[in-house]
Amino acid sequence: MLVVLPPSETKAAGGRGRPLDLDALSFPSLNPTRKVLVDELVALAADVPASRAALDLSERQDDEIARNAALWTSPTAPALRRYTGVLYDALDPASLTPAARRRLLVCSALFGLVGGTDPIPAYRLSGGSALPGRAGDTAPQGSSTGTSLRTLWRPELMPLLAEVDDLVVDLRSGPYAALGPARGAVTLDVHSEAADGSRTVVSHANKSHKGHAARLLASSRRRPRDAGGVLALLRDAGLRVEQAGEHALVLVVPR
């Protein structure tokens, strides 16, 4: 079983690894596209106003642009240490075993799909970003001028995920799932339930619940083969989970 996570906008600074080496990353077939995007981000960083517009940044976030300028020279850190925030706090990757960390993948707007232990630099590029001058479909309404990254990644990530032999549990948020839908993957939505039984979809707080679920899945010795197996694993761990479709699960939490 493999668990696919979204990245985070926030990323830890620094690192002890050598500068970016694409050959050190999982899924080497993605390296040509990775190189194109890294080179484009480095070039874009030379134009600070254009970077702000393309990446939806304010002047107070110019340090993010500086990170992009140094993508080829800055130190790296394992992906699960690089990404920070609510989901990764709940996941607590530092306390996971090496085997558990190897079951975790991260979908990145810059690198496509990386293993949890892959060494990557700090960067800024979101799933909904659009780099100026890219040829292809136009970006979604509300994004910056340019073209959607899903135009670039979808033809590569969809077949890659389809070829995975293990069951895939897809915990990505919408913009990252759109980069390369994983057909047949088990998904998990989070709903909050009020005392009267009414439910609403959990938005920001769902990251914590998904991080906890990812930890349980990666740490388990069980290897479910379908949504029913994932449901049983999570229920046995004390979570309230329901099946909402052949491949869809819902985690119900109190409001």
Automatic annotation (TrEMBL):
This is Peroxide stress protein YaaA. Signal peptide: none annotated. The lineage of its organism: Bacteria, Bacillati, Actinomycetota, Actinomycetes, Pseudonocardiales. Pfam families: H2O2_YaaD. One of its GO terms (biological process) is response to hydroperoxide. It comes from Actinomycetospora cinnamomea. InterPro entries: YaaA (IPR005583). GO terms for cellular component: cytosol.
